[in-house]
Amino acid sequence: MNREQVKTLILAILVIMSIVFTQKIWFYSPVSILQSEASFMEKQIPTIIETRSQLVVPEGAIISFGNSNYTVVSSDIDKVWREAREVLSHYFKGEPEVTLTTLEKYRESSRQKSIELQFGKNIPSVLIASIFDAVDNKIVSNIIEVKSILIPALNRGSIYIVGKEDFVYEVKINNFEENRQLVTYLDALQSMNHVKYYPLFADVENYTLMPLSYDKPIPMTFVESEINIDNQTMVMELAKGYFDESLDFVKTIKETSGAIVFMYGYGERGLRISNRGRLEYTEEIGSISSSNVINALDIAIDFTLKHGGFPEGAYLKEIRHEDKNKYYFGFGYRIEGLPVEFHSANLRHPIEIEVYGNQVKNYRSFIRKNMALPYVTASTSTQLPQKIIEDHIQLLIEDYITDTQGNQELMDKNVLSYMERDISKIETVYFDTMEDTRRQLLIPAWKVMINKRVYYFNSYDGKLLHSSLVN
Amino acid sequence: MDWSKAKNVLIVAFIITNIFLVYHLEKDIFDQEDLQLISDTYVKNVEEYLAEAGIHLDIDIPREIISLPGLMVKYKVFEPEELAKEFLGQDYEALDNNVFTSGSKMVQSISNKRFIYRNLTDGGKSYPLDEEGATEISNQFLRQHNLMQEDLKLQQIYFGVIEEFGKTPLYKLVYNQTYKNRFLAESYIHVYIRHKEVVGVEGMLLEFESTYGDKIKVIPATEALLRKMNEIIKDHQGQQDITITAMELGYYFNPIDINLTTWETIQAGTTTPSWKIVLNNGKTYYVEALKN
Q: pLDDT (tens digit, 9 = 90+) per residue, B167-226?
């Protein structure tokens, strides 16, 4: 190689080096400045809207086939919701007439072929309307919160909504198109294998549905926490996400239990991951700007999407809006179609987010995922909840008397009928006993609400897994 | 210009460009390695400002600005039973809250991290003891009970009345832990000696696990003083004589200001480079020496 060729080679190397360095500097500084939070949020907007519509879904649905023939849908709620949305969009997008009506009329309609959609706690109507891209309509202006929506299958231009404090509204549209789509869907559902439900306590004016038989086997399933505290690399990467991708100024604390705490400044931002994989993030916030529920939910969604996203089957369970501009959102999720529930002093729902103004102040989550292990099938069949209630009647009565202390009307001989009247929920769930740290066998359980107390019974052997008072 | 000369010019130009680019890419690293000093004028201004606020200096303000890494440290575990055997021998009585007694002696383990030893004898005959003698007795006692570690440095000897030990004056020897000749706080052993007897020991020690993260350039001592000034004044309202007697840079593990956990459950954690400010009344302040 002669002198000139060497020079050409050196020049070429220098050119390449300068290109590489320039590129590095470019990515190092201007890109991060250009890519501000606002523009990131803008990019996220379609994803946020999409996620919002996936989260604002009913918790469950009661299908009435008519002639006191019911079923309860919890696992395949998406399909029911898709069908119902078609119908509901006419009401939310149109110019409906909203009038107060009676619970009797609601019940009468619910006995006909219909779908009753049950929403989480304190869900504002504006949030449901936002799914239909119609936040400014008569339903929103007349009904603040939506507990449940009843859609008669034979569309006569009316639906019923139960709102705050159990006020019942009839929502009527005049220019309705009669179609039999929903009837066809319900007929198809009826012809398939389904669990039959019946209001067994109707004689004491309690219309809570109870299954008449339960042949559907629910497997026990092994799950593990999404966050593995023993995986240092995973924990560090996860923590970086909460501290602007750098832990340089972040203090770390390890607890004797194995939990890790990360802290920035004097409590400005803190993250704790327990040995079970429960995550708790808290941030100090300055002045609180004004907000509304849709905006607050979008902020909560945006935050969650930036930090690992929602688990599959996530849905909005509860909203609390006690202070002005402060919103609490509780989310649940399903595994194998069933809601996952647990009891923890620190956590009411698997994901909890508190939004102040336009900032997330607290974020807590405890999420398990299915392990690639074979299901465990029980040797016995699923017990019926009424049988379990009967088996535990002494305990339930004792609890009921304790919980309703001060109620003078409660006479010993009447306690049973009072209690039966107060059974408000019967639901199949997976109950996480949290006995094991990271891996856990989820047990199918009957969740029974009586008065202010919730019970979880193993649906196979009927044993009480947990009971506690709820707010 | 022929092509060969043009190449020479271009090579020189690109070398200069690349040096410029490399400098910009790595300037943070260059900054970290450098030992910088703060100017005399700035130090003087701060001294005057502190004096106006009523804080006097008995020291020269340290002038170096260096970079230090964080440390991962863990609490030394003092198993209650082992502690009891070490200080009380085989015959002892176990009471509640990890308290053990034997005759006039008592030892307590608090959350397995801190311990208190007391020997409640009257100390026998009065014995004139000088600082050297007290140090010898103290060191001997610590060696005997396997507490004399290499990183433990005797920092202070105090002689006077300590309320908890009655009205007779006694010696209090303060040992602090160090890491690479810098303080490692908060860890200590306090030894109390009356006459010739060790009447009390308190201790909490840290163990070094690893360095944590990159080196971080610390804030100058002047900035640390200004940051803590208000708190010092607030704590000493109405007092005239506030004098800073010592100031040094070291490592501080702060388990207190953390709202997501409690001291009782902490096993280990990271220290931050911090300035320690000691006042004439013995009160110590720590200032995290981080830029943010």
A: 888 899 999 999 999 999 889 999 999 888 899 999 999 999 998 888 888 899 999 999
Contacts of B11 in chain A (CB under 8 A): 7, 10-11, 14
Residues of chain A in contact with residue B22, where contact means CB-CB under 8 angstroms, are 21
DSSP three-state, residue A148? strand
CB B190 within 8 A of CB B201: yes
Q: Which of B11, B290, B292 sits opposite A10 (nearest CB)?
A: B11
Which residues in chain B have Cβ-Cβ distances shorter than 8 Å to A281? none
Q: Are B61 and B44 spatial neighbours (Cβ–Cβ below 8 Å)?
A: no
B18 → closest Cβ in A14, A248, A272: A14
Question: In angstroms, what is the C-alpha Rg of chain B?
Answer: 26
Per the structure block, which two tokens stand in for A410?
């409660």
Å between A328 CA and nearest CA of chain B: 20
Q: What is the 3-state secondary structure (H, E, C) of A177-194?
A: CCCCHHHHHHHHHHHCCC
Chain B CA closest to residue A281: B260
The pLDDT score that the predictor gives to residue A216 is 79
ipTM: 0.76
Length of chain B: 292
Residue A310 C-beta-side C-alpha neighbours within 13 Å: 26
Helix (H) or strand (E) holding A303: helix A293-306
Residue A249 tokens read as 């100024």
Residue of A nearest to B72 (CA): A252
Of A8, A25, A256, the CB nearest to B24: A25
pLDDT of residue A30: 54
DSSP A345: S
Q: What pLDDT, on a 0 to 100 scale, did the predictor assign at position A178?
A: 73
In A, which residues are within 8 Å of B254 by CB distance? 251
